[in-house]
Write a structure and sequence with these properties.
Blueprint: E1 2-4, H1 7-19, E2 24-29, H2 35-45, E3 50-55, H3 75-85, E4 89-91, H4 95-98, H5 117-120, H6 124-139, E5 143-147, H7 151-163, E6 169-173, H8 193-199, H9 201-214, H10 220-232, E7 237-246, E8 261-269, E9 272-279
Parallel strand pairs: 1-4, 2-3, 2-5, 3-4, 5-6
Antiparallel strand pairs: 7-8, 8-9
The chain binds adenosine monophosphate.
Length: 280
């Protein structure tokens, strides 16, 4: 496995692979890898001849008040996990090269990214679309793999790729969960034992919603009210949003339509912001 930090080196490696008729699957990450990321790598292996994992804590997707500086980082462990997982190249660019002093170009999706997380994090998706567009230009993958855990992110990136005629397929892999159902996230390391216990209400509330819908409930108001109520039973949990939306457009739905609806939740557990979702 090779570790590449310079953008030019990455472009050269990518061109070499493509000229040897080897297709590339890209897995963009911010590092501090867990089994969720590893499952994306497994999916990626099945979709192309070689896997490139990018590790970059992208400053432009964090607001000044957010956790950019404290975001967990462990480069050696990440590289060891990638090596074990059969990754061909880890691309580890430097922030100074990705965003030099005179940097001034951004990619912005204007519709899907304005709802849900876009309300409380107004500049977040612009940072995500910008960095992913840059990674696509540098790595030139045939396919890029993202996690269902960040459902809105995947929908926004799919829209960006379609709108900008990008020659890349967007694949989405299922959410990997802890034993008690909590979606794996690098940010889970911020949780104390007490917070961690209360955070488990999030997947439990989603499972209750699933049972309601499987029992025939179609009123999105009723399902959202129950999820909100369950989250409110925990002292440390504060709801940011609970929404049922069309999984492609992120538009609110009045009725649950199995096969089309997405239940998305964001909540604070004290000062830790967690998101999760469920496809009906
Ligand atoms: P991050 O490093 O948190 O930016 O995530 C990198 C990629 O991993 C994104 O496509 C995420 O959606 C995906 N991901 C994060 N957590 C999980 C999870 N628990 N299950 C599946 N994919 C995940």
């Amino acid at each position: 496995m090779d570790i590449v930090t310079s953008i030019q080196d990455m472009k050269t490696r990518s061109a070499g692979l493509r000229s040897g008729e080897r297709s590339i699957a890209l897995v963009p990450t911010m590092g501090f890898l867990h089994e969720g990321h590893l499952s994306l790598i497994e999916t990626a292996k099945g979709l192309a001849d070689c896997v490139v994992v990018s590790i970059f804590v992208n400053p432009t997707q964090f607001a000044p008040s957010e956790d950019f500086t404290s975001y967990p980082r462990d480069r050696e462990r990440d590289e060891a996990l990638c090596r074990e997982a059969g990754v061909e190249i880890v691309f580890h660019p430097e922030a100074e090269e990705m965003y030099p002093r005179n940097y001034s170009t951004y990619v912005s999706e204007e519709t899907l990214s304005k709802t849900l997380c876009g309300v409380s994090r107004p500049h977040h998706f612009r940072g995500v679309t910008t960095v992913v567009a840059k990674l696509f230009n540098i790595v030139r993958p045939k396919v890029a793999v993202f996690g269902q855990k960040d459902a809105q992110q995947a929908a926004v990136l799919r829209k960006m790729a379609a709108d900008l005629h990008m020659d890349v397929e967007i694949a989405v892999a299922p959410t990997v969960r802890e034993k008690d159902g909590l979606a794996m996230s690098s940010r889970n390391t911020y949780l104390s034992t007490g917070q961690r216990e209360e955070a488990a209400i999030i997947p439990r509330a989603l499972e209750t919603a699933r049972s309601m819908v499987e029992g025939g409930m179609r009123s999105t108001d009723r399902v959202m009210a129950e999820v909100t109520h369950l989250l409110a039973t925990k002292r440390r949990v504060r709801v940011i949003y609970v929404a049922i939306v069309d999984r492609d457009t992120m538009e609110a739905m009045r009725e649950v339509v199995p096969g089309r609806s997405l239940l998305a939740v964001a909540a604070w557990v004290d000062e830790v912001r967690l998101i999760d979702n469920l496809l009906f």
